[in-house]
Specification:
By secondary structure, this protein is of the alpha/beta class. The chain is built from eleven helices and 13 strands. It folds into three domains: 83 residues, Winged helix-like DNA-binding domain superfamily/Winged helix DNA-binding domain (Arc Repressor Mutant, subunit A); 93 residues, 3-Layer(aba) Sandwich (D-Maltodextrin-Binding Protein, domain 2); 101 residues, 3-Layer(aba) Sandwich (D-Maltodextrin-Binding Protein, domain 2). Helices cover 41% and strands 20% of the residues. A five-stranded mixed β-sheet has the order 4-3-5-13-6. Strands 7, 10, 11 and 12 form a four-stranded antiparallel β-sheet that branches. Strand 1 and strand 2 form a beta hairpin.
Length: 289
């Protein structure tokens, strides 16, 4: 049996993209060449790897098992390319970093900026996600580093603790909750609109968890959430570094909630076990503390 990297790449691309056309675009190949590679893989394995009865090609049970081995083959190729590039230049070919949007991007961008100015040969990709979307992107995009405030679902990742992030439960100074003289209970908060980012996550274990507010508005990011808070639309949690100016001016006021008005997030930086961090990755890790 002679299975090539070309066969493995075509099979992996089809499994991820779902169609021959999309796989061909990703591989910068013609539709015919991808189809030929898949046919050759079935011929070499002497197995039916694809179910062709429906509108879209689907992997058979045998196809799923062969795909696992193809992906191991591709992972070995990437490891070889990485090792050779590092031996030639001292820099890894690429570095993918995904981080939670609650974390300040400033130190990340500062570290990346220093690498760019230095002329590092590494191709760097940095993307921001939120909550569970961070780990999903880490797995989907095969990122090298992940910064998240949630405990990862995947076991065995190597983690490093980063500086904590303080967040406060706030509302605009004109909001009814901010004008209340006594301590607020859960019933008082439930009478108002809660602002959050991308729907929240119970793993955050916020003091307000379980409250069923009058309404919930989910924003795209914390800057949008801050604008909504300043507009007096509702109440919600905001990281200190995002609203430092508004808190100092008391434009946003910390609510006196009996369950707690402050919450500390403990972000961690993760990479895969056994993964050898390259020169650029080490620089980013060191810069983040």
């Amino acid at each position: 049996m002679h299975v090539t990297l070309e066969h493995a790449r075509a099979f992996d691309a089809l499994a991820r993209t779902g169609t021959l056309q999309a796989a061909a675009r990703e591989l910068h190949k013609s539709h015919t060449s991808v189809l030929h590679a898949l046919g050759a893989l079935e011929e070499q394995t002497e197995l039916n790897l694809l179910d062709r009865r429906g509108y879209r090609l689907k992997l058979t049970g045998a196809g799923q098992r062969v795909l696992e081995h193809c992906r191991r083959l591709l992972a070995s190729e990437r490891a070889l390319v990485l090792a050779c590039t590092e031996m030639r230049t001292g820099w890894e070919p690429s570095l993918r970093v995904v981080f939670d949007g609650i974390v300040s991007s400033a130190p990340i961008l500062e570290a990346v900026g220093a690498l760019v100015k230095e002329g590092a040969a590494t191709r760097i990709s940095v993307s921001g996600e939120f909550l569970g979307g961070v780990e999903a992107a880490f797995e989907r995009d095969e990122a090298d580093l992940m910064i998240t405030v949630l405990p990862p679902r995947r076991e065995g990742l190597v983690g490093k603790r980063l500086p904590p992030i303080r967040a406060f439960l706030v509302a605009h100074r004109s909001h009814a909750l901010a004008r209340s003289r006594g301590a607020l209970d859960r019933t008082a908060l439930a009478a108002h609109v809660l602002l959050d980012v991308r729907g929240g996550d119970p793993r955050l274990e916020l003091p307000t968890q379980g409250i069923e507010p009058r309404g919930v508005i989910s924003l795209a990011d914390f800057e949008a959430k801050k604008r909504a808070l300043v507009a007096g639309i509702g109440f919600g949690w905001i990281p200190e570094h995002v609203a430092e100016r508004e808190l100092a001016k008391k434009e946003l006021r910390v609510l006196r909630f009996e369950g707690g008005s402050e919450h500390v997030f403990h972000p961690r930086l993760y990479h895969r076990p056994g993964a050898r961090l390259g020169r650029a990755a080490k620089r980013v890790v060191d810069a983040l503390g």
